[in-house]
Amino acid sequence: MPEHRETWQKRDGSANWKISTLPPVFQNESQREAWEKAGSIGAESVVSQDSSGPTSGQTATEPPTTKAGMRNWLANGRDVITPGLLYEVVPERFQDHVFSPAQRAAVLRVLAETEGVRYEGTVQDRAGRIGQAFSVTDASGGLPTKRVLIFDPQTGELLADEEQILGDTGKLQVAPNSVIGYVTFLTSERQP
């Protein structure tokens, strides 16, 4: 289900967020008909919002600016962070942090030295922006997937994250190579 997500986080780690569902997007009329037959779930927008108090420990601190420090921060206490897990964690951190240029550079250095990361070239994201795409293929979630992160070549901002299922799709009843999830990052800014 498409959604619009807004997150505000203060320096102490406290946060507010608001999530609004958006109308479903269909690839063809038969998908729309199947959705309508199933009860048109998601036809009405649902808005949820909540907040959390200050946090302690690592999440309340600014992310580091060194490659080693950033890798440890992204690992969040794990001894090892696999390429698949890294591609899960990086978009999550971009959802709840506004990275400085030095921090974004550290994230990119971590990705650059990660085994299995492949440069996919220049691409256009779903918002029409041009970026540099880097992918990793992984099956840690049970099924083989390809995860693509698209970065702004000038600023290092994460523009988008897409996940595509490969080969055997199990019981998902989707065609191989279907995009099964994506996030487009439109705005990220620090407030006083």
From TrEMBL:
Task: Name the source's superkingdom.
Answer: Bacteria
Ranges of Polar residues composition bias in the record? 46-64
Q: Where is this region: Disordered?
A: 1-70
**Compositionally biased region (Basic and acidic residues):** 1-13
Q: What is this protein called?
A: Uncharacterized protein
